Structures are given as C-alpha cells and as structure tokens.
User: Fold this.
Amino acid sequence: MKASIRAIATYLPENVLTNEAIAAAFPDWPADKIEKKLGIRERHIAGPQEFTSDLAVTAVEKLFTTFGLDRSSVDALIVVTQTPDYLLPTTACLVQHALRLTNKLLAFDLNLGCSGFVYGLSVAKSLVESGMSRRLLLITADTYTKLLDPNDQSVRTLFGDGAAATLIEGVESERNFIGSFNFGTDGSGAADLMANGSGLRPATEPSSACLRMNGGEVFAFTLRVVPPSVSAALTQAGLTLEQIDLFVFHQANSYLLEHLREKCRIPREKFIVAMAQCGNTVSSSIPMALGQLIAQNRLQRGVKVMLSGFGVGTSWATCIVEWD
Assistant:
C-alpha cells in the first residue's frame, strides 16, 4: 500500500479583515502598499466564539459532503494546530466527537506551525504504509489572530485564520506518491516567533502573551535553511529542479517568497503564490494553495509537486508529492 492524497477541502471564517481596515488603524501603511509588499488583500478572522475545533469540523464536513465520503470509513485523525481549544484534552478528541467518527479511531494532535502540513504528511504516510490506517484525515487548523496584538501591524497584516482537511488513503501501487522528506529543527530561534506566556511557563512581561515576531531573523532563517532543504529532497528523490512541475511553499508573504524563489532558482511560472484572499494561514497555507490548484485543474495525475514549510520553532520540512 502507498499513501496518496485523495481530496482536500478548506474553510475560512466569515469575518474578513481588509487592507483598507488595517490602513485606517495604521495610516502610515496604505492598503495598496500592504498588498504590494505582502501579496495579501484580506484575511479571515475567527469569531469571538469560533475556535480551532470549529474550523476543523467545518472543513471536514465540507470534505465529506463535496466528495461523498462515508465518515465511518475514517480510521485515523491528525490535527495539526498551535492554537488548541484547550491545553487538554487534545483537539483531535473534540473533533472526533463533533464529527461522530468511530471510537475505533487513532487520533492525536501535532503542535507545529508553518512546517506542520509537511510533518503531518510524513506521519500520515507512515501510518498508511505500515498498515495502521487505510483512510486518514490530516487536518490543519489555527486561530492565530486570537494571539495577535491589535497594535502590532507587523503581524496583524500577515496572519489569517483557517482550516484544511486532507484525505490520505492507501492505494495499491508501486509508485511512491508521497516521499523524499527532508526535515530540520533549530530551537535557538524559538524566540523569533513566540507567544511568550501562552502556555504554563509565565510570561516575562505582561503584554508578551501576544504573538511576537522578529521579522528580520525569520527572513534570514528562511533564506538560510530552505534552499539546502530543497536540494536535499531533490537528491533523495533522484530528481532535478527542472523535473518538478510545481512548487508550493508555505505562504508566508510574497516578499519573502520572491526572495526564496530567486535563491532557489525556481522559474516563476512553476512557483505558486496564493494568499491574496486569506493571508498567512500557518499550517493550512500549503493545503489552501493545493486546493486552489485543484480548482484550477492544475493537479493532474503524474504532476510532481514540491512542498516546503518553514517558520515557528524554528522548524522546516520539504517533500515531493506525485499527484495520483
């Protein structure tokens, strides 16, 4: 059995924060300047009583309805999130109950951010190809905007809330649909993207429970670690850059992505930038972009896609997926 991505559904909350609304709060940063630099026109914001499990459940219900899936056939559930409803119980348990899935279900959370989808794919592949699961839901969901300081324009312009549900199944094949993984971790950069005081360790200052980002360090980190990760994944797969059809990287912002594209020497026509309507949705940004490609009929059988996630941790992961 080989693990294969079979379907993706996404969900964005109804509340929308436009560049115009942000510009009204920060007159020194006009709406057109925000879009030109970041590639973002609007981002969706979870309501006051809307939390990660709610977004996750809505995305999965959309997946079930759109693709006519039998919920009783799901035997594994992974929720990738850094904004759980509670410290305990795990969000995956809440999602299992809300979706009325079988009790004979493997379910757990992965606490990862921007690299989370690729990490989740690696775990899903292991579960399916070891025979422990035949039909698995990989859910990415976050409500980062609940961690933002409304007066911090550097993060308020970037992040949006959202969720994606990816169905991964085992199929009889000799082809390796999900593989060639490269991972990396450097905890020395933890403070560069941190919600200090958001857990059990006390905050070092009263306001630091909000998400704080050292943009310069995150930028430098990304340009330092991602190109070697791309090269390593290609080497492992025995492929060249030219043999990859599409590159879908974590949708951080267009300014960073363009510098990354140039450093990796990726042709612009193969490099996907798809965050204008949703902003940076953390672990959901890659499946959000894949969902758009599916809607555009650009993911045909045999298309090779490189995925790369990088950010909070600091953590990064790259892999190559062949569409089935």
